[in-house]
Amino acid sequence: MGAPFNYDVLDLTDEQVDAEVRVFGALTAAVRRLNEATLRTTVDHATVEEVRRQVEELTARLEKSMIPDNFGVSFTKGGRIRGYGNAVVGIRNPNAVPLTVVQDKVNGRASAEFELNALHEGPPGQVHGGVVALVLDQVFGEAAAAGGSPGMTGTLTLRYRLNTPLGPCSAEAWVDRRDGIKTIVKGELRRADGTVTVTAEGIFILPRWAREEIAKNGGTPPQFE
Ligand SMILES: CCCCCCCCCC(=O)SCCNC(=O)CCNC(=O)[C@H](O)C(C)(C)COP(=O)(O)OP(=O)(O)OC[C@H]1O[C@@H](n2cnc3c(N)ncnc32)[C@H](O)[C@@H]1OP(=O)(O)O
């Protein structure tokens, strides 16, 4: 079986990538503000309806020219990764958390400090458990990649030990061990004061199609970004 998805390689310069990161990153940040304001505004209904008309006009301007569907992941010949739609770290995805993951390739670790707000609420004032899983899946996957054995999430097991209040949080993950094509990653989510609220273990697997591709043509595993 071949790969169920492709990574295109594009002829874009670093300057072109920097420009799209700057311009679209700023739009994404502005839309995130709009998202939070949509949730929290207390202006009167007439103002809400006027703003809604303006939002629809602006949306129609962007819809004049769009890619057919999802963004996918592409690389430049210079090695830049354009995973702009990623649900956790995509710089063009206003629904992404947002998050910057720092990889430690020496020790096979990954970490992120971030802020979760009213858009990420589950129980009152607390982070939604599914949002925790979303964030940890990405940070865990990046730890596996940083450790040199990237894979797709096969299993992710979380233990929610304490509630996680909305606000500043951090996540950390590390490669615990390898078992052939499986990389076992462990990690945790912490409150701002360092209290661990969630511990987790993930099994990241180099899929059969990637194994077959490497056996046939050599090369390095894809990143599963
Ligand atoms: C910079 C880069 C940063 C990247 C960050 C990315 C973070 C986000 C990652 C994701 O969200 S990935 C998307 C969510 N995951 C998926 O969609 C995976 C869907 N499942 C699959 O594609 C396949 O089921 C999978 C690749 C997991 C396994 O398929 P294989 O055909 O390679 O498995 P195979 O049957 O050959 O089994 C190989 C080994 O893995 C084991 N295994 C298979 N599925 C497993 C599973 N789900 N959990 C644990 N172990 C599993 C299986 O028992 C066996 O163990 P042993 O070698 O010891 O016998």
Automatic annotation (TrEMBL):
<dbReference type="GO" id="GO:0016020">
    <property type="term" value="C:membrane"/>
</dbReference>
<dbReference type="InterPro" id="IPR052365">
    <property type="entry name" value="THEM4/THEM5_acyl-CoA_thioest"/>
</dbReference>
<keyword id="KW-1003">Cell membrane</keyword>
<feature type="domain" description="Thioesterase">
    <location>
        <begin position="125"/>
        <end position="196"/>
    </location>
</feature>
<protein>
    <recommendedName>
        <fullName>Acyl-coenzyme A thioesterase THEM4</fullName>
        <ecNumber>3.1.2.2</ecNumber>
    </recommendedName>
</protein>
<comment type="similarity">
    <text>Belongs to the THEM4/THEM5 thioesterase family.</text>
</comment>
<dbReference type="GO" id="GO:0006631">
    <property type="term" value="P:fatty acid metabolic process"/>
</dbReference>
<dbReference type="GO" id="GO:0016787">
    <property type="term" value="F:hydrolase activity"/>
</dbReference>
<keyword id="KW-0276">Fatty acid metabolism</keyword>
<dbReference type="InterPro" id="IPR006683">
    <property type="entry name" value="Thioestr_dom"/>
</dbReference>
<keyword id="KW-0472">Membrane</keyword>
<dbReference type="Pfam" id="PF03061">
    <property type="entry name" value="4HBT"/>
</dbReference>
<dbReference type="GO" id="GO:0005737">
    <property type="term" value="C:cytoplasm"/>
</dbReference>
<keyword id="KW-0966">Cell projection</keyword>
<dbReference type="InterPro" id="IPR029069">
    <property type="entry name" value="HotDog_dom_sf"/>
</dbReference>
<keyword id="KW-0963">Cytoplasm</keyword>
<keyword id="KW-0053">Apoptosis</keyword>
<keyword id="KW-0809">Transit peptide</keyword>
<keyword id="KW-0378">Hydrolase</keyword>
<keyword id="KW-0443">Lipid metabolism</keyword>
